[in-house]
Amino acid sequence: MNTTVKKSTTFLCNSIRFYSKKSALPRKRSYYFVAGTSTLLCAGGFTWYESDSQARHVTLAVKRMSIATKVGISVAIDYKKTQSKKYSSEEEQLRAKSECHQRCAERVLVGLQKLGGIYVKLGQHVSAMTYILPIEWTTTLSALQDRCDPTSEEDIRKLFLTDYGVPLDQVFEEFDWKPLGVASLAQVHKARLRKEHIDQGDWVAVKFQHPRLDEFCRIDLKTVSFIIDTIKRMFPDFGFEWILQEMQESLPQEMNFEHEASNSLRLKENFSYERKHHKTALVVPDVIWAKRRILCMEFIEGARIDDLDYMKEHGIDPSQVSTEITEIFSKMMFLDGFVHCDPHPGNVLIRPAKDPKSRFKFDVVLLDHGLYRTLTEQLRTDYAHLWTSLIRGDEEGIRNYSLRVGCRPESHRLFASLLTGREWSTISTANLSSDRDTTEIRRVSGRAKGFITRIYDILETLPRIVLLLLKTSDLLRGLDETLRQSGDKYMTYALMGRFCAEAVWIDAKQHLIRRIKESPSITATLGLIKSLFKAWWEYQTLEYSLWMYELQSNTRASWYLIWHHGVAKSSRENKENERLKHTDAAAAVASAT
């Protein structure tokens, strides 16, 4: 603490103690003295706050803790009161619960918006859990998906100077202070580097972490932990501890942009063969340089992946985009074992293809590489086996491989519904490709809420990495349903099945070759070679059948587009002819009169 401030504070305190002993002071003089002393104390406190960064941090931390704790406890008390009341009818009880859900969700929303940072990220995560939480919660907290406050220009300049070592204007020739996007952890600006910093002087995208996030991350996580522990004591069935555990693991990685740059480079390497031979539409922006809290990368212009009007304007077929996204993420999950775990629409862009040799009419640009998970070889192959069983409707396989990825015994049906978003009756009849209508969605959601304690148990015991795979599957399913509005719904599962089959074959091949090398006799070796050939034949047969299916589906889709284009063109021509007829008739009437 500053010495001058310390002396001033001591003097003021001694003065207060001295004058407090003199009860005979006139009231008016006493009033002026108290007012003057209060002013001096406030001024001294403000000087201390501004001059001592530790004091400022402690003050703000206490304020943030008090806001979060107040909201958490008020929500817990409201639920406790609502549950302990007696109601005259079930309808009255349901109405009271709904009103309690709404009140508490609104309190939490206001608190999260005040606090920002990881609290907003927590709220975004919770708002996506539509299959578990009441609609009042998910609807209210969905406001957090698009509302994040930007960091000011002053704070951005300070952050850049601290982390990069020179003023921002010395590095960038032009800088657009209006953010391209603002998320819970960071915001992105468009800028042009000075030519001494890059050969071309091209436009770049610069990602800045919100400065306050770094300052309060640790204390915020401890506060959330305290709130969750408090709620757990009041409601023993509460099962959301896993959200905090996942955030504790993920946040340090997401907050290190050097780690994000490394993930980006690794993904590019994983798809380098496909890019070289024009077998993928995936584009990953080049990283120019990275600091822990600042990331400078190639600027790529495009539209969100769910912008159907943009695709229509540029002649891009949404179903083909969905097919390519399925292929990209299937390769990540089932072959590479290195998975981008946050593919929400804001992190995926679409644009017309820039490479004239590309067999695609579009590029899929993947952004935000902070949240990845690396699957072990065992988990990768078990997950491929699990999805193969889900696609086939093989309950024994689903039970076996659900257990192997960490699900509790006899919870495989509920786990399968969580993973696919479908009813067990749909899964067990190998009918995942059927349309998911609103009635089924309501039934799945309703049954999930009926099994809420069992779902908590499943989520609590699953490995954190499998929880992220669940989240990724849910986001991809939402994208697929948005994009694949026409065409073959089975295509998604046919594509996934092909990648799963390849993963299963690679696993079987490696296992059998290892056993052949260790085989003690010729007879055993011949038996293993026979098994190897059988596994290869099964894979080739499945690969061929799926390839034929894709070919037929693509042919049907192409004919549909040609027919639709012809019908649309014919309709336009008919309308134009009708318009000309009316115009000619009107002209004839006008000339006659």
UniProtKB/TrEMBL annotation:
Transmembrane portions of the chain: 31-49
SUPFAM superfamilies referenced in this protein's UniProt entry, alphabetically: Protein kinase-like (PK-like)
One GO BP annotation of this record: mitochondrion organization
Cellular component GO terms held in the UniProt record: mitochondrial inner membrane
ABC1 atypical kinase-like domain sequence ranges: 144-401
This protein's UniProt keywords: Membrane, Transmembrane, Transmembrane helix
InterPro entries: ABC1_dom, ADCK1_dom, Kinase-like_dom_sf, Mito_struct-func_regulator
Family: Belongs to the protein kinase superfamily. ADCK protein kinase family.
Name under which the protein is recorded: ABC1 family protein
Organism per entry: Mucor ambiguus
